[in-house]
Write a structure and sequence with these properties.
The protein is an alpha/beta fold and 145 residues long. It has one domain: Rossmann fold (3-Layer(aba) Sandwich). The protein contains 6 helices and 5 strands. It has a 5-stranded parallel sheet, with helices on both faces. Helix 3 runs parallel beside helix 4. It is globular.
């Protein structure tokens, strides 16, 4: 699955689609660069309306998302999980957040998250979780602290 950029672009197979959802531009940028170099076609979104448009028009293999996209609403991330499960139930959803209480993790899992990671997390560890989820059956969830 992990291709260099040139190998992936010349491959006969389409690149797996990955969506990164975070209100911090620096996180979107760094994760987009990292996963693009590792064989994914990456889109990013920083607001809920962007996420709705992208999910409505693209089937993503993986979605890496924060729980809070604004200071005003802390349930945006849970809304996104529910939306993805309704439109693309096969997508692997990884929550990557600084707001990682046990209660919030449990709620995210009930909504359909496959993995729950707490920031800060090295990109190499996030990539290991992505790879693990892509290699496991759809009905199994992964729990990471």
């Amino acid at each position: 699955m992990w291709f260099g950029r040139e190998e992936a672009e010349s491959s006969e197979f389409p690149l797996p689609r990955l969506l990164i959802v975070d209100d911090e531009e620096a996180i979107c940028f760094s994760m987009s660069e990292y996963f693009s170099l590792h064989g994914f076609k990456v889109d990013t979104a920083r607001e809920l309306d962007e996420v709705e448009k992208l999910i409505g028009s693209t089937d993503y293999r993986v979605i890496i998302q924060d729980l809070c996209l604004s200071a005003k609403r802390d349930s945006d991330g849970l809304d996104i999980i529910r939306m993805v499960r309704g439109q693309n139930p096969q997508a692997k959803i990884i929550v990557l957040t600084a707001y990682g209480s046990v209660e919030m993790e449990d709620e995210a899992k009930r909504c359909g998250a496959d993995a729950f990671l707490r920031k800060p997390k090295p990109l190499s560890q996030v990539a290991q979780v992505v790879q693990g989820l892509l290699e496991t059956p759809t009905d199994q969830a992964v729990r990471h602290a």
